[in-house]
Amino acid sequence: MSSLGLGLGVNRFFGRGQAFIPPPDEFIIEVNTELAGTSNSDQFQFTGAIGEYDVEAYQNGDLVATFENLVNEQTITLPSEGVYELRVIIKEAGFHKMTFNNTGDRLKLLKILNWGLYGVNEPNQSNAFFGCENNTEIAGNGAWFDIVTNTSIMFNNNSLTLLPSEMNLPLLTTGGFMFRFNSITSLPSGMNLSLLTTGFRMFEGNSITDLPSGMILASLTNGGNMFNNNTINTARYSQLLIDLEANNNNNNVSFHGGNSQYNAQGEIARNALIARGWTITDGGLEI
User: Fold this and answer.
1) Which of 104, 139, 174 is the C-terminal boundary of a domain?
2) Lower CB density within 10 Å: C or N end of the chain?
């Protein structure tokens, strides 16, 4: 692990009192160096990073430090301990992913403010932000949303309450543990997950009460504990069962609907799935 020094410069995007518009290509995060981590209290480690990049550090809209020619995992030393906005300027070789994997400076990450060109050439984002318990926000402009195929354990044990409306994930096949143990209450309207095969524990331990109408899960083969410890409203959960029976041709699938209950129409679909070898766990028929 190397530690890079700092340099001072001027704000190249806006002056005091002016709104900041994120450059479309930059990956921007907010961090608190004072929180526990691998690095010192005035440092931040780009844990498990794969890529080539420069970094500009801002406080209160002012550029306070620059770091050039970083490659893969690096540790930067800031002017003092505190909260910083770090703008990752991605080089031609790309910034493929971070891999906190429940290690390093995972607790120092507070928000993902802009995705930019993060992960545009890396369809496997498994373990990327696993264990970032203080991360409360992810931006909605992720170019990687459209190409990712594996997000297993990606945001497991974060503190997300809301997912961006743009998060469609049309090519995703492997999403086990992706959002496990967050505080999410609903899923984006565009999230159809039409190619998802592995959703094992994907949304376990949240507070989800509603699902988008487009979430049909037509390819699901493993939904074990998928919505465990959630309670989806009866009408929407019943429709999910109806859509599964009509559109998913797989047999012998394990599926967990949490504490959700179904209505009479949902019961018909549920019984048909069970007749095809499905094992379904949920809150039972609504009385």
Assistant:
1) 139
2) C
Provide the residue type at 128 as one letter: A
For the purposes of burial, counting CB atoms within 10 Å of the CB of 257, is it exposed (0-12), middle (13-18) or buried (19 or more)?
A: buried
In a domain, 110, yes or no: yes
Q: What is the pLDDT of residues 16-33, one digit of tens each?
A: 445 567 778 999 999 999
Q: Over the stretch 149-192, which tens digit does the pLDDT of each residue have?
A: 999 999 999 999 999 999 999 999 999 999 999 999 999 998 98
Domain that holds residue 204: 160-279
Distance CA 232, CA 245 (A): 18
Enumerate the H helices of the chain as residue ranges: 234-247, 264-275
Quote the number of domains for the chain.
2
String of DSSP letters for 182-233: S---B--TT---TT--B-TTTTTTS---B--TT---TT-SEETTTTTT----
Residue at which a domain ends, from 108, 139, 170: 139
Residues 20 and 106 in one domain: yes
pTM: 0.92
Distance CA 134, CA 33 (A): 12
More confident residue, 77 or 14: 77
